[in-house]
Structure formats: structure tokens, C-alpha cells
Amino acid sequence: MKNRRRREPDPFDGILLVDKPTEWTSHDVVAKIRNHFKFSKVGHGGTLDPLATGLLVLLIGKGTKLSDRIMGGDKVYEGTIHLGVTTHSQDRDGEVLAEKDASAITREQVEAAIQNYLGDIEQIPPMVSAIKKNGVALYKMARKGVEIEREPRKIHVFSFEITDFANPFVKFRVKSTKGTYVRTLAHDIGNDLGVGASLYALRRTESGPLNLEKAHTMEEILTCNRETIGEKMVLLSDLMP
User: Fold this and answer.
1) Residue 90 confidence (pLDDT) above 60
2) 1: in domain
3) Is it the case that residue 138 has pLDDT exceeding 90?
4) Residue 5: inside a domain, yes or no?
5) How far apart are CA 131 and CA 222, in angstroms?
6) How far apart are the first and last CA of the chain?
7) Is 49 a catalytic residue?
8) pTM of the entire predicted model
9) Above 70 in pLDDT, residue 161?
10) What burial class does residue 108 get, using C-beta atoms within 10 Å of its C-beta: 0-12 exposed, 13-18 middle, 19+ buried?
């Protein structure tokens, strides 16, 4: 039996770190990069909501084999909670359900509420999410006004700190395991404080060993062509010994 010739690494096998702009879905970014560079296979290593910005890991060619490794890594986010405003999506893009006066809430009260969300916790995913029930995404049900019971999911929050407090806005930094809905953390903390809350802004800065410092904006990436985009990629040969 002849030895099969080992395939040489393709110049487009690897990952591309993108600083996702707000309003773009993760799918928008994947589709734009695939079409612009005529890549045959592009995926991503963990969804960001349209509101969110920051580190989106694109998996290109055989880089898609790294999906489980990338998606399974811990995540770090920086963001802003808006106290007193509750929305159906738990972030500022959603329909406002209630508004309450949060002016009496202090930084110390928010810090005390945060303590309940450190370590191992169970989180009920929001209805406005891509989780599927009987093959149908929850957000599609939510659009029709349908709400169903969701099973709580176990997550771990390693750290959760306030970086600035200017009522009604609370800036924070959180590190957690995969699958954490940061907007749900904001929503639940608001409920605990009795005034409600929603996520006003979110930026992912780390995903596993990868960080935002080495990411490129869409503008920077789209100035490249197939001959030059490799300069901005992390090749598969550098990721898998």
C-alpha cells in the first residue's frame, strides 16, 4: 500500500482575529470575509450579539477543526449595565418593558449584588437567543410573542468587578466560562436590586489564549486581497504542533 502524500498546509488554513463592529452579526462577518476573499470554508469560534463588539475568532479552511478548542475557552468581557431599564432582550436593542428610578442605588449595593454571581451558578438563558427548542431558535419564538420554559445552565464566573460607577451606568469587567450570557447577568443583577437593568454595551477582549490586541478591524482586513490576507492570519501550523 502506497503512503498517502501528506497535504501541505494551505495558506488559508488558520484563524483570523476580528474586532467585530457593533450592529454586525457574527454571521455577517463570516459571510463578508468568505465572499470577499473567496474562501471555501469559514466559521467562527463563538457568537457575539449584534450589540457587542470585540474579539471574534474566524476559523478558516482546516482552522475549522479548532472550533471546539476555541469555543471551549474562557471569555473576558468589558461592558456597561444600565440600571432601571428592563428590555425583552436584556440589552439596549430590545423593547423596553419597564423603567424605574435607580438614582438611589449605590456602588456598594451593586457590588454586593454581584457577589451572588461569582463561582458556580445556574443561569436561565434569555428567550432572545440562538438556543433551539425542537429545532426552532428561541429568538424566532420570541418574535412571535411566545415564551417557553428554559432549562438553567451551569456556568462559572471567575471574576466580576466594577471598573466605573456613574448611576445609572455601571461599567464592569467579567471573566467566565463559555456559554455565559452577560446580558442575563446584567438583567438578574437589576432584578436583585429591585430596579431592573439591561446591558448597554459589551466588548469581548479575550477568548481562551487569544486576545483583542492582535485583532484587526473589518476596514483593515478588507483592504487586503488573497495575496496579502495571510499576513494577518495565525496559521494552522502555528496553532497545532
Assistant:
1) yes
2) no
3) no
4) no
5) 31
6) 27
7) yes
8) 0.89
9) yes
10) exposed
What DSSP line would sit under 83-131, residue for residue?
ETEEETTSBTTSPEEEE---TT--HHHHHHHHGGGSEEEEEPPPSSSS-
All cell numbers assigned to 65: 477543526
Rounded Cα–Cα distance for residues 219 and 215 (Å) = 12
Residues 106 and 195 in one domain: yes
Q: Is residue 155 part of a domain?
A: yes
Q: What is the pLDDT of residues 7-64, one digit of tens each?
A: 445 567 889 999 999 999 999 999 999 999 999 899 998 889 899 999 999 999 888 8
Active-site residue (options: 10, 13, 19, 49): 49
- Does residue 214 sit in the same domain as residue 234? yes
- Which grid coordinates belong to 121? 451558578
Chain segment 185-225, per-residue pLDDT in tens: 999 999 999 999 999 999 999 998 899 999 999 999 999 99
Question: Residue 46 carries which side chain, given as an amino acid letter?
Answer: G
Return the closest-CA partner of residue 114 out of 192, 180, 194, 176.
Answer: 192
